[in-house]
Predict the structure.
Amino acid sequence: MNSSLDVSDGSRKPIIYSRKDHTISRKQISSAALKVLYGLNDNGYRACLVGGGVRDLLLGRVPKDFDIATDAHPEKIREIFKNSRLIGRRFRLAHVRFGREIIEVATFRSSREMSRSDSDVSQEGQILRDNAYGTLEEDVWRRDFTINALYYDIRDFSVLDYVGGVSDLRQGVIKLIGKPIVRYREDPVRMLRAIRFAAKLGFTITRSTMSPIPSLVHLFNDISPARLFDETMKLFNTGHALAVYERLFEVGLFALLYPSTRRVQTSELDSHNKFVLKALRNTDHRILNGKSVNPAFLISVFLWYPMKTVYSAEVGRGNNQKDALRLASDKILREQAKILSIPRRFTQAVRDIWELQARFSNRSPRRASRLLEATKFRAAYDFLLLRSGDDRALLELVDWWTRFQSADFGERKQLFQEVKHAEKRRKK
């Protein structure tokens, strides 16, 4: 299948996989998604499950969510489902809520260039608004990757494939629909999505899809920091952070998302890389074992060595350690905000994790007890554990705090005695 083929007038016929030709069963689809599919169908509209839900079901995976595409316009969807609301300016969508589950419903879009005015497309070719509605046959060409452009038709339970998506699923490849440079210019975030899907599924990105990326990273300058932050959350908090990082680093996208990493001193690059890789492995392990992760933790990891470089410079200017840390944190986080609009609750958590690192060294009874009660103690302790590596001094500190957390009154008293004896030995 030629990945650059673009037949947007509906003349291309799909490969139709009937119910006996595929593995998708309605039992695998959430009851909420089925209600929306049948609700639209019963009101005379065509409705199909589309995107990641179809892809994951065909791969034998459990979908994270179910998206639906239909020929009903957003206002009609709102009329049919009173438990829905319309969202989005760039793409007008309907969210139909069933308790905690939200079913996203999009109207088939037109792929015809004539359907957009000049104000809908930027000078770089980025699509700013895309509310020109069309048919299913046109909608498929507005999808990004072949494996995400498969439609499960509720009318006869068939899977419709216009772009060779089923074949690409079987081969394990990520391939853009249409001309890659054009599609990336329309929406640069597709570069991140290609890497995320490849990491998540263990697929290979085709050469035609991958090769333009390094020359197009400048397009991210036109993406809002808020949207880029949302995309990074998907990149690093779904259990495949290490694989994502390695691919981002390979094509130069990580330095674009976290530009201050270029500030890391050459002498510390090896330590920085080991530090980041270990954190990513730990994060993936936690997620894959059903444990929660705080996005602030990885942000604090990514920016730790850049912050240390600025901190050292501030100390060199004569600032005390506390002021130097505050100034360095402000500078690094302010620079980062120009790229990723990190919510304040996360930036404050990053500051807390960094600030608590210095406090671990002060193990007087009063201060140690107060530190143990700090809101971000656990995250800061995990960060200290990560930092320790082969540093004997930090390993001893981690061991002391590990024992202190579970110690009773008598045991804590003994631990404080150990600190006093160690201080006396150092003075001698």
Notes: The chain has 20 helices and ten strands.
